[in-house]
Specification:
Oligomer: single chain
CATH superfamily of the largest domain: DD-peptidase/beta-lactamase superfamily
Number of domains: 2
Number of strands: 10
Largest sheet: 5 strands, antiparallel
Mean pLDDT: 95
Helix content: 40-55%
Order of helices and strands: HEHEEEHHHHHEHHHEHHHEEEEH
Structural class: alpha+beta
CATH topology of the largest domain: Beta-lactamase
Shape: globular
Strand content: 5-15%
CATH class of the largest domain: Alpha Beta
């Protein structure tokens, strides 16, 4: 069995070419104008190993917004600040078979967000982040991540303006229902914080460094909180496709409509990909195809 730190760029190059063929059938997100500017051919991979070895390939200079990938780390942030008992009083851990922005799912669950990886849960999490307003919350959160992971994330103001320009009616409806059912303290602050943290941006290396926080033990994070986030990613991180890829890949993963994907190999390292072409669920097609091949070739599934 080959391990992560034995990978070569030759392996990666061949697997990327395969993944790109699958991605050609889909298209980039066009709801947010700034995301629509991405080149469908861009593809980047960065792998951070526990040993300290790093492997990168492709369009690694590309900067992209983390979008929903940030949800895994806002959950981690809250767990570290408030503990699991408090956090799971606010949001659940059940997988959802409905789209990530489903109001119907939230109504069926009587306003208790099913999990933190879908929009209702992430908006609720955004409402609870430390800080007096959205700007301060985003700044403190971004600083925490950069300090902990050694990455260089920043709030992309151009992306944020594009997100604000195309206000999501689905997210607004979700936020109103969360407020009605007593799950949000401040609707506007929650939505603004959510939009800001989704516009936190970086390169594929930054995403891999974030993933390494969840993959490898470090003195700064609770091992229990890392395990919780990895478990929720495995069951909920790819929306309604999560169960399918738990079987096919067997790694905790989180995707975003910005084209980012992070996969965690517990005890070994993290794999980050950037490929802006999405499927109809909102997952990056090429990135998932690449990780699936890599995980099968190296037998990386957490299930042995």
């Amino acid at each position: 069995m080959k391990r992560l730190d034995k990978l070569t760029t030759t392996d990666i190059s061949a697997w990327i070419q395969q993944a790109k063929i699958q991605a050609k059938q889909e298209r980039v997100n066009d709801r947010i104008p700034q995301l629509a500017l991405a080149n469908p051919g861009w593809f980047a991979v960065h792998i951070c190993c526990k040993s300290g070895k790093t492997i990168n390939f492709g369009d690694t200079a590309c900067v992209f917004p983390l979008m929903s990938v940030i949800k895994a780390f806002s959950l981690l942030y809250l767990l570290e600040h408030f503990g699991a008992e408090t956090v799971f009083g606010w949001v659940g851990v059940k997988p959802s078979d409905a789209p990530f922005n489903s109001l119907e799912q939230l109504i069926a669950d009587r306003g208790y967000p099913r999990n933190p990886m879908i929009n209702s849960g992430a908006i609720t999490v955004a409402d609870k982040l430390p800080g007096k307003d959205a700007n301060q919350r985003t700044l403190l959160f971004c600083q925490w991540l950069n300090q902990l992971a050694g990455c260089q994330l920043y709030l992309d103001e151009v992306m944020l303006a594009s997100v604000r320009l195309t206000r999501s009616k689905a997210n607004e409806a979700i936020a109103h229902y969360l407020t009605e059912t007593g799950h949000l303290e401040n609707l506007e602050t929650a939505l603004d914080t959510y939009n800001q943290i989704c516009s936190i941006s970086g390169k594929v290396e930054d995403l891999a460094l974030l993933g390494k926080l969840l993959a490898c033990e470090n003195g700064s994070l609770s091992p229990q909180n890392r395990r919780i986030v990895n478990a929720v990613m495995l069951t909920c991180g790819l929306y309604e496709a999560s169960a399918e890829f738990a079987v096919k890949v067997g790694l905790p993963m989180k995707s975003g409509i910005g084209g980012g994907l992070v996969a965690i190999v517990p005890g070994e390292g993290a794999i980050a990909c950037y490929s802006p072409v999405l499927d109809n669920i909102g997952n990056p097609v090429g990135a998932i195809a690449f990780v699936e091949t890599l995980a099968q070739e190296l037998q990386l599934s957490v299930f042995g």
